[in-house]
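Q: Predict the assembly, please.
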Amino acid sequence: MSDVPAAPPRKEAVPPGSGRPAFLRPAALRESGLFLLFLAPAITIFAVFFFVPLARLVHFATYQQNRTGTAERYRGWGQVGDVLTGDEFREGLSHTVSYVLYTVPPGLILGVMLAVAANRRLKGIKAFQAIFSSTLATSVAVASVIFFVLLNPQIGYFRVDWLSDPDMALFGVSLSSIWQNLGLTFIIVLAGLQAVPDELMESATIDGAGPVRRFFRITLPLLSPTLLFLVVVLTVFAFQAFAQIDILTSGGPAGSTETLVFKIFQRQQPIDLAEGSAMALGLFGITLLVTMVQFAILDRRVHYS
Amino acid sequence: MSESAITLHDTELGADQAPAITGGRPGKSARRAKDVVWYLFLTLISLVVLFPIYMTLVRALSTPAAYINEGLPLYPVKIEWDIFRRAFETGDMGQKMIVSGVSTAIIAGAQLVTSVLAAYAFAFLRFPFKRVIFVLTMATLMLPIEVTLIPNITNVRNWGLLNSYAGLTLPFLATAFGIFLIRQGFLGIPKDLLDAAKLDGYGHFAFMIRIAVPVTRPVVASFAVISLLAAFNQYLWPRAVVSVAQWETVQIGLKSLVASNVEESNIGFAGALIAAIPVLLLLIFLQRHLIRGLTAGAVKG
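A: Predicted assembly structure:
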């Protein structure tokens, strides 16, 4: 028995710097540095043109600028509340919601109908499919001019007064969106239809199910993720409607086609910044809410095989 | 195949989704009649879908006055074939095409670069709280230009960037959509490839350029097409940034072309058709990529 304390058990040779947390070790540090480097361009853009503007919206909405933008006074969230409960915002919101209702359900139904019609093995079906998706080639501006050709009160092809009638104008404008969205909806629903396994349809036919039954019992449920995606996309498009109104009606007649984005666009001058920013925050909140609600409600109905 | 006695409710077989593999089939003539009906139906729908574009062509080729005088026929009246040339001159379409073209190229190119870099970082590099940063990045999808218009245009104005390429393109040099798409592609690269590359001593940059991007070329190409389309078709932001005619893009130029002078509006109609051509060309040649990109988010499996 020795009275020398036992030597501590030998450890493995330890790499230098291992006393520090993992992410500070040299290799990891290099990787982190690379991460920051690669991400820097995108993050900079997002910071400057997305996040900071969000903060600025809050600032603009809670202050009041003078006409030249050289001075401002703090007004607080009460000002935001006033705008969001005021006539202008409610009008804009109502027009925007109407636009959603005019364009989304018809867009979906028509898209599904077109896709079902063109999803069959006929010779030359590709030509029809190309035609049905052709509206995808139009921008909103081009589609608006195309419907100007059809609906303009003075020289339009159809002798209707819709665009100069305050009660019908928004509906008239929405027709251009419905038409334009056909291409997109068609392509996406067609892809969804083509993903339906043949075996499923075959066995259903063997079991005696007719086309209608096959559609509602098999196709539609399998299409539901696709349709959910489309509902969200089309709704967001409708919430952002601007070009079609700018070209077809300029917001008229009597402001009956002024959607939220249009009203926001009109408020770029210093004196309008407060109102416009409050509206923009309202638009942001509503879009967020609607998207989340759509995902929540419809997601429960979606059939994931 | 014999006309078997096993008859199901099979009148839909042949031209429908359910293939004609079961039992008795309807006679050839019945099937052909059905096909004819479908052809007619599809043709009818096609005419309806194409009518707006057709009518725009008709109206572009006729002067409004002459056309209305004729009583709004379905064919062009007093065709003026030089209307397209006039659209270029009066409407200065050449200049607008240049502005649109350059800004589109800048935006699409920048989005490609920033998205690939960021996607690579998220997919292959480690970083504390990477998840949180990714979620924040995706959150920008909830802040479209429609919402951030006012502060962004105020900044652009204060920085003296109205009526400039910088003003037109800066807010769009990066997009979370691209980062998402390409990251998905990168995550799908087989692990064996990653391991092999590591064994071969590839650094991150080399791996990204020589392997990761080429392997995910379909996804990258799809995004590039979508990016080009979206940039070329922009309306709201250019409309806010541009206030002089020579900086107008093709899209916003359409408004002044059409609305200013109703008697000469056929110039605007011709302009719209011209404006649709680049996109049409893009789609004809690259639709495969576009469709793949669009359906990536919508269709399972």
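Confidence is low (pLDDT under 50) at residues 1-22 of chain B. Residues 108 and 224 of chain B are 7 Å apart (CA to CA).
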